[in-house]
Amino acid sequence: MVEENDGKKTFKSLHVIVIVSVLLPVFTLCISYIVGFKLEKISSSFVPFVSDTGDTRPNSSIFTFGLSLSGVLTLVIITIRYYQVEYILLETKTQSSWINQFSLVSGLTLVFGEFIVAAFQISNIKAVHFIGAGMHFGGAAMFCATQCYFTYKSSKKKCQITFVVRALSTAIMTASSIVFGVFMIPSLNKYNRKGRNVGQTFEWLLVSSQLIFMLTFLNEFRELEIEFRLSKINNLQDADEESKRLVNIASFTFSKTYQRID
């Protein structure tokens, strides 16, 4: 929802972005799997890896399109969250900005990795696909860990449900990443396809915990508004200090449970 008033644009209902960013990969992977299974491109004798659902045509097109859109929405969420935390740090005069910057870099890494995974199928360019997967899962783990830190520091109640869910999701994500990585070793590959489906199971658990983590932003984004102020400056030298602060074009309204980071 967008409201315009005197050169200002206010964006509301930002929680819709969170909902769509989670539902989009779910539907993408389900549709890709169903199409591949119906066309006998995906075997029913073992649980497929996530990448298997988009490895062959035509389901690869669905896979690439859906994950690319999901990556764009995830990028929007990460950017908004970065400026939200920066605003809180500025208001409370807290020196934790480097952690927020690290979180932003981690978020950009996971998004870029998702783009690589979507664009380069595993059967075509395996090395590039694996690099993208490593960037995505590694970046996701670091981003979620830093967000857990900010959630813990900014919550009035340290055992708040949001923090608990985020912490558990991050722990499951990290453990699943380790197990998944170990069972991708060639000598242990026999326990994956046509075996006990160990690697596939932990990869799906990894993806699921990541999506659950993203859902935890739902309440915060529901109570969040972004206001953009548009102004024209004819002579920068004659402008007052307030007008010169062009970077300060957005203001936020937050939930009262997120007021300071000590």
UniProtKB/TrEMBL annotation:
Where is this protein primarily located?
Answer: membrane
Q: Which UniProt key words apply to this protein?
A: Membrane, Transmembrane, Transmembrane helix
Q: Which domain of life is it from?
A: Eukaryota
Q: Which sequence ranges are marked TM in the entry?
A: 14-35, 62-83, 104-122, 128-151, 163-184, 204-221
Residues of the CWH43-like N-terminal domain: 15-223
The record's subcellular location field reads:
Endomembrane system
The UniProt entry lists membrane topology as: Multi-pass membrane protein
UniProt lists the family membership as follows: Belongs to the DRAM/TMEM150 family.
UniProt xrefs under PANTHER family: EG:22E5.9 PROTEIN (PTHR21324:SF2), FASTING-INDUCIBLE INTEGRAL MEMBRANE PROTEIN TM6P1-RELATED (PTHR21324)
What protein name applies here?
Answer: DNA damage-regulated autophagy modulator protein 1
> Whose protein is this, by species?
Hydra vulgaris
